[in-house]
From TrEMBL:
GO cellular component: ribonucleoprotein complex; ribosome
Pfam families linked: Ribosomal_L29 (PF00831)
GO MF, one annotated term: structural constituent of ribosome
Name the record gives this protein: Large ribosomal subunit protein uL29
Amino acid sequence: MKNYEIAAMSRKELLEKIDELENRLADINFHKAIEPPQNPMVFRNSKRDIARMKTRIRQMELQESSDA
């Protein structure tokens, strides 16, 4: 997911997407014990996307607190 896509999302959308990615990552980790994943880069990319989204949420919080 690109940064401009994350910046365009609302807080609610970001939280839903984070939850979705964390569940997907947990499923992949669970199935990793049975058979290796087809694309091992999915772990790194998912973790990075989650971190970007959490950073964006934090930026929103800081912006709201400075505006108030």
